[in-house]
Design brief:
Chain B: This is NADH-quinone oxidoreductase subunit NuoE. The complex is a heterodimer of chains A (635) and B (157). Chain A has 635 residues and is an alpha/beta fold. Chain A has 24 helices and 19 strands. Chain B has 2 domains: 9-65, no CATH class; 77-155, Glutaredoxin. Chain B is 43% helix and 11% strand. Chain B has helices spanning 9-18, 26-37, 42-52, 56-65, 85-89, 92-103, 148-155, and strands at 77-82, 116-121, 133-135, 138-140. In chain B, a hairpin with a 2-residue loop joins strand 3 (133-135) and strand 4 (138-140). The radius of gyration of chain B is 18 Å and the shape is elongated. Classes of the chains: A alpha/beta (635), B alpha+beta (157).
Chain lengths: 635, 157
């Protein structure tokens, strides 16, 4: 890594940016191979791919002609590990170390594209040669995530090469704090962490709050299961978030700030730590930044695994070293936050938008999106979907466009059932809502929320009662216990839904659930409790028939709830291949080769291993006929 | 658990010093202690209470509130099954059950020989490659019930 020297003034920083930009122009003349290596990429073997790539380039004598750039995640997680060869932008995916050797020989030496490593569209089956031809990327508008491809997140100089810190220089030398805040207000940027509060108003309130000492915080406690865009931004472009915070500190008048990052994100923690070190070395953090009167200290605080700490007052308590329990608002953090001083707390994605708005102007930003929701939003498109990954789309796009055009539809030709948005505070939207446009207001009206941007797709094999049970279990576990309505409400709702999935549901349960949901919502203090009922209410609203099938017919239509199903072999489809027999951990499957197999119900523990092993769809979850469930008294 | 680690008071002192004896850094201090011992030994917490001059009960309250902390020793290997929504709809509960069956312990427990601890996590944020299981820091993507014995085998001697 190149040594970083301290920039004494704005001119020196400007010069360094120009130098790096020029070097980047030079680099464009040669081939650059960009390897995606975020957490997902590394989990799929990107580090071995990089090693193999370096070795192959050495062996072919291409070491000096071809540059490698190791970057964070490009968003297309399904295709990991992948690489892009610039300048052509040839996109190769799902690579192993031997594949890389082939690519170096074929593409770099011989100049041929290796078809089998190209992306193949799950719907049209067509192969895309270039990154920009891949349908997954075509409908996206990647203003925040797009630069992940161009920067090595461990290097400040790489960030300068894409014009990094030009926005900071602009606000430092040419804008008054009020002007910065005015620009943020005009842009229409709203908080990307969930509630969607206008960012500019928050900044203004913190600036106007009396007192000399003020703090800024970056909320990177991305706790919603199924959402990971903040991880990707922190891992792949940490400097952009930090630059956003520096601009925020200038505008608000803060001299100190914290980045609160989940402990479950080791790579993000590492990259942020490195970035902070380099910024201090470069004189972009600390006392008298670039020789001006502006000083700023930023620290990293690691979370310790508590979902409720995503709530701003709980997060502040956690930074102060206390138990992460939320407190009553007002006073809002903008009035009394960290150490009881005015504090501005924004989400990772929100901070990452700031440099872009400062550089391109409020009008540019507000030209994207709908009347009430401006800019883009990153969603994590996961679950039962072909193209899983992070998608950044303009506000106002429809669910259908995201799920079918970008996501490539549902795997194995199954039918779409629902999409869950907004994490445990959100809800499940059915197929009839597919043409719903996405912005803060319309999602709320539909009974869900924007939330941090998780988008979990569910197909016909997903049981909606089970999904509600899952979220309630999560929430009763994560409820801090301060408000009785939330602590007991989530617990009781979970017990009722659990009983329903176990075949113990009774007439009147659904009405009781609705009553409890309302009480939990009305009487809880923080966002966790106030929204805890959403997963239940939204599934009840759109999938009441599934609840009723569980209660009145003791039947799980999706074939998920263990007590209500049993696995059986479909004789017409069974080829007698013995795959299920080998997979069964309890020896519950009988049958000889080429004969139809049989499942012994007294031995079967319903683990589903046979279903997973069968390649002929010859095993199905049938309705458990002999249900003799007696409602037991549970402790 | 058969292994009893003795608490090295010097290293504890060093951790507290690094954080400037700052009570507000309690969570970070506990994280550093756990990084050394893989759990929070009672003896270390008692000493910490004296060093930081805060009541032991306040330390315990923080240590038990946050999921990342453990007051009991962990096994030599730790398998963590991700229970995030995306992993859930792709079968994470069944994978957890298979781990429980193979290791003969429930989630949150450690095997008697001290070899394995089985943990769950709310979400690891690599939802695209779910169901995900992390063993000793290695991520295993797209796991299935049938892959569980293979994954365990890789860490068994």
């Amino acid at each position: 890594m190149k040594r970083i020297k301290k920039f004494k003034n704005v001119e020196e920083l400007k010069k360094a940016i120009e130098q790096q930009e020029a070097a980047r122009q030079q680099e464009k003349k040669k081939r650059v191979i960009v390897v995606s290596s975020g957490t997902c990429g590394q989990a799929r073997g990107s580090l071995k791919v990089i090693e193999a790539l370096k070795k192959a380039l050495r062996e072919e004598g291409l070491k000096d002609q071809v540059a490698i750039r190791i970057t964070g995640c490009h968003g297309f997680c399904e295709a990991e590990p992948n690489l892009i060869i610039y300048p052509d932008r040839i996109f190769y995916q799902k690579l192993t170390p031997p594949d890389v050797r082939t690519i170096v020989k074929e593409t770099l030496v011989e100049g041929r594209v290796v078809e089998k490593f190209l992306h193949r569209d799950p719907l049209t089956k067509e192969r895309a040669w270039y990154e920009n031809e891949i349908p997954f990327y075509q409908k996206q508008k990647r203003i925040v995530l797009g630069d992940n491809v161009f920067v090595d997140p461990t290097s400040l100089l790489e960030y300068l090469a894409i014009g990094g810190f030009r926005p900071f220089i602009k606000v430092l030398t040419r804008m008054k704090p009020e002007e910065i805040i005015q620009t943020v207000k005009q842009s229409g940027l709203r908080g990307r962490g969930g509630a969607g509060f206008p960012t500019g108003l928050k900044w203004e309130a913190t600036r106007r709050a009396p007192g000399d000492i003020k703090y800024i915080i970056c909320n990177g406690d991305e706790g919603d299961p199924g959402a990971y865009m903040d991880r990707s931004v922190l891992e792949g472009n940490p400097y952009r978030v930090l630059e956003g915070m520096m601009i925020g500190a200038l505008a608000i008048g803060a001299r100190e700030g914290y980045l609160y990052v989940r402990d479950e994100y080791p790579l993000a923690v590492r990259h942020v730590t490195l970035a902070l070190e380099q910024l201090y070395k470069a004189g972009l953090l600390g006392e008298k930044i670039l020789g001006t009167d502006f000083s700023l200290d930023l620290h990293l605080a690691k979370g310790a695994g508590a979902f409720v700490c995503g709530e701003e007052t709980a997060l502040i308590a956690s930074i102060e070293g206390r138990v992460g329990e939320p407190r009553q608002r007002p006073p809002f953090p903008a009035q009394k936050g960290l150490w009881r001083k005015p504090t501005c707390i924004n989400n990772v994605e929100t901070w990452a938008n700031i440099p872009l708005i400062m550089l391109n102007g409020a009008d540019w930003f507000s030209s994207i999106g709908t009347s009430g929701s401006k800019g883009t939003k990153i969603f994590s498109l996961v679950g039962k979907i072909n193209n899983t990954g992070l998608v950044e789309v303009p506000m106002g796009i429809t669910l259908r466009e995201i799920i079918y055009d970008i996501g490539g539809g549902i795997p194995e030709g199954k039918a779409f059932k629902a999409v869950q948005t907004g994490g445990p505070s959100g809800g499940c939207l059915p197929a009839s809502m597919l043409d719903q446009i996405i912005d803060y207001e319309s999602l709320t009206a539909a009974g869900s929320i924007m939330g941090s941007g998780g988008m979990i797709v569910m197909d016909e094999k997903t049981c909606m009662v089970d999904v509600a049970k899952y979220f309630l279990n999560f929430l009763r576990d994560e409820s801090c216990g301060k408000c009785i309505s939330c602590r007991e409400g989530t617990q009781r709702m979970w017990e009722i839904v659990r009983d329903i999935t176990e075949g113990l549901g009774q007439p009147g349960d659904l009405e009781l659930l609705e009553e409890l949901a309302l009480a939990t919502k009305e009487a809880s203090m923080c966002g966790l409790g106030q929204t805890a009922a959403n997963p239940v209410l939204s599934t009840l609203r759109y999938f009441r028939d599934e609840y009723e099938a569980h209660i009145y017919e003791k039947r799980c239509p999706a074939g998920v709830c263990k007590n209500l199903i049993r696995y059986a072999v479909i004789p017409e489809k069974c080829t007698g291949c013995e795959a299920c027999k080998r997979a069964c951990p309890t020896g519950a499957i009988q049958g000889t080769r080429k004969d139809v197999h049989l499942i012994l119900y007294d031995k079967c523990i319903k683990c589903g291993a046979c279903l997973e092993a069968c390649r002929f769809e010859a095993i199905e979850a049938q309705r458990e006929e002999a249900i003799t469930i007696v409602r037991e008294v549970k402790p | 658990m058969s292994v009893h680690q003795t608490i090295n008071l010097d290293s504890l002192q060093e951790i507290v010093e690094r954080h400037g004896y700052n009570k507000n850094k309690l969570i970070a201090i506990l994280q550093d202690i756990q990084a050394v011992y893989h759990y929070l030994p009672a003896e270390a917490l008692k000493t910490l209470s004296k060093l930081l001059k805060i009541p032991l009960i306040d330390i315990i309250s923080v240590a038990t509130f946050y999921r990342a902390f453990s007051l009991t020793p962990k096994g030599r290997h730790v398998a963590t099954v991700c229970m995030g929504t995306a992993c859930h709809v792709r079968g994470a509960p069944k994978i957890l059950e298979e781990f429980e069956r193979q290791l003969n312990i429930r989630r949150g427990e450690t095997t008697e020989d001290g070899e394995w601890s089985l943990e769950t996590v709310a979400c690891l944020g690599c939802c695209a490659i779910g169901p995900v299981v992390v063993v000793d820091g290695d991520y295993h993507a797209h796991t299935s019930i049938r892959k569980v014995p293979t994954i365990l085998g890789r860490y068994r001697k």
